[in-house]
Every structure is written in C-alpha cells, then in structure tokens.
Amino acid sequence: MADIQGSYDDLFIAVPRALSTMLDEGDAGASVAVFVDGEPVVDVWGGFTDADRTNPWQRDTITNVWSVTKTMTTLCALILVDRGELDLDAPVGHYWPGFARAGKEKVLVRHLLAHTAGLPDWDGPIEDLYDWPSATARLEAQTPQWEPGGAAGYHSLTQGFLVGEVVRRITGVSLGEFFAREVAGPLDADFHIGLSAEDDHRVALTIPPSGQDEDYTASAPGGTAPVTSAARVRVRDGNSVAWRRAEIPAASGYGNARSVALVQSVMACGGALGGTRLLSPAGCELARQEQFRGEDRRLGMPVRWGLGYGLFDTGLGWGGWGGSLVVVDPEQRMAVAYVTHQMREPANDQRGMELLLSAYDGLQGLKP
Questions:
Q1: DSSP 117-131
Q2: Which of 36, 69, 134, 154 is deepest in the core (most CB within 10 A)?
C-alpha cells in the first residue's frame, strides 16, 4: 500500500487507509485532516506533488483547492455580519453603489452568498479574473438572469468577486488581506487567497484526469445544466503564476487539508478555537439557514444552499473542482477536509465522500 505520512488517532485508521487506497489506484498526491473539538485526530498526507511521481508530498505542501475557497470567503462575510457591519437583508448597492444598476437594485447581500443573485456566469476573458477593478466593473454592468432570490444558479467564479467587493467596501482592504488578518493569522492557518512568490516552491500543481491534458475544463456534475457562453477555466489557467497571485475568492485559495479543517473548525465549534473567537454561536448558525432548496440552474442537480455553504443533512460545506472537499458537522463538532491536486471526472469521483464516511466511522468509537 502507498506510504502515508503524518499522525492519526487509532480510532480513525480507516481514513489513512482510504487515502492509501486512492494513491494505489493512481492518484498522485493528497492530504486529509479530521478535527474534532478543534483538535486534529487525523493529519495525514501521501503521494507526490508532480505527475511524474518524483517529488514526495510534504507536510507543508499546498495546492489550489478551487471552490473550497468559497467557504473561506463566506467566513469573512459572516464575521462582518456578526460584528454588525454587514446586513444580510440590505441591498448590495448600499455598500457598493455602482452595483445598483442594470436590474440589480433589489439584489440583497444574502442573495450573493446563496447563489440566488442571478449573476452566475463569468462573461469576460480569463485575464480579467486577475484584475480586481476589471472584474468588479464587469459585474456592475451585468443584468440578472432571473429575479434575484427567485432561483439558484451556482456562481462558480462570480460569487467571490461579488462578496469580496462588499467586504472591501466595508473594511477598506481586499478579501485576501482581510482573510489573512482576521482569520488565517489568528488561527495560524496555512491558507492563502492570493499566494506570494515565496510560497511557490510548496505548490503542487493541478493534474487533470487520466486521459485529459491541461486544456481540460470544468463541467457541471448534473446532467440537466444548460450550456452557456460563460468563459471556461482550464487546468492550465489554474496552474499559472497569474492565477496564484490573483485574488479570485471563489476559486484561487491555496492550502492543505490541515489548514482547511483548522479554519472550518471554527464553524464546527461555535465560532471559537482555543482562545481565539472569530464568530458568536449565533453567527455560526446563520450559515445553516436554508436560503434555497431545489434544482440549481448551473449545477443541474438538487441542492440546499445555506449562507455561503451547501447544506447536507446536519452538515455544511462545499467541494472544489477536481475533488477537494470540506464538510463541517456542528452537532459532532467535527470538520473533515480532503485536499488533492489529482482531478478525476466528476461523475466518477467519490473520494471525498469515502473519506468523510471513514471519519464518521472513527467518530463512533470516539464519542461515548
């Protein structure tokens, strides 16, 4: 079996075993972490950082987690809500006056977080994603595709700019700066939205699915999503230096399973870890308020959207293109994160779910 590094409680041995099996089946590299009560009970990694399998995955290896980044961006917004600086029921134009045109006057802050704003598609060149003023100006000019709040359509790239610009208007700093100062810094979490050059040597570049090359693009997991003219991100775009340097708060976060689980443990533990409190318990509960239930117009499948998180039974979380995943279970005070740079086709990818179920197996033995 593939060699797994790190540490784990023996009750959770199914988690590293599952990771080892995935590496044996052909995955290049990955990390998995399980936190309970804010403490790691699994922190493991294995495999390699390159497609040629020459450079071992290290403890501090990081990679692009794609849309798992949305959970970090959401946390920033929830912090401002908790502080009374951001009103979920206020029009976005209250904070961002230029936004309130082209039929967007009634778009509320909660619509941005719940993918119900009607602005799901990035209609510009990929290069504009790397330039914040260009990206937000483009969104100011867009017209909603449906009555805001009346339907949901996954805002795969646009959500981060929409929420991030509101955060910037309130705080005076970018979303990446706010996250670093208010979240990653206090928690000592190795997660970055806008990666500096000094961290490039730690990055495991994304590897497309078997049989695909770096021109591989994302597709909706469901079978009924409409084909749109929206720009499609390629693997090669995500592997570029420009992507790493940019703040694309819906899709360009870099970290590993340890840092993802650490940050999202805030949501599992009532807003505080150790002596650091980021949210009140009530602030955490906001994320679990269902905003939409039904078929998502872009994902082509049934979803339940809370505020910035997908809702699953008693849990909340979200996954990223290619397989990375974080799920938080506040009732069990558990956060599970899987971070990989090895993509699989969405229809054939159950890795995150397998690891999540393995974590629950261990939890049964841990809890009296």
A1: SS-----S-GGGGG-
A2: 69
pLDDT score for 364: 86
Residue pair 154/298 in contact by the 8 Å Cβ criterion: yes
What are the two backbone dihedrals, phi and then psi, of residue 41, each rounded to the nearest 5 degrees?
Answer: -105, -15
Block means of pLDDT (10 residues each) for the chain, length 368 residues? 94 97 96 98 98 97 98 98 98 98 97 98 94 97 97 97 98 98 98 98 97 88 58 94 98 98 98 96 96 96 97 95 97 98 92 96 80
Known catalytic residue: 229? no
Contact 340, 44 (CB under 8 A): no
In this prediction the pTM is 0.96
- What separation in angstroms does the CA of 164 have from each of 74, 128, 309? 9, 15, 16
225: how many CB neighbours lie within 10 A of its CB? 18
Residue type (1 letter), 360 = Y
Cβ-based neighbours of 210, under 8 Å, separated by 6 or more: 26, 344
Q: Count CB neighbours of 348 within 10 A.
A: 9
Eight-class DSSP state of 166: H
Residue 314 DSSP label: T
Q: Which residues contact 290 (CB under 8 A, 6 or more apart)?
A: 304, 305, 306, 311
Please spell the DSSP secondary structure of 42-85, one letter per residue.
EEEEEEBSSTTS-SB--TT-BEE-GGGHHHHHHHHHHHHHHTTS
- Spatial separation of the C-alpha atoms in residues 220 and 223, rounded to whole Å: 7
Q: What is the residue type of 27?
A: D
Residue of 20, 31, 67, 196 marked active site: 67
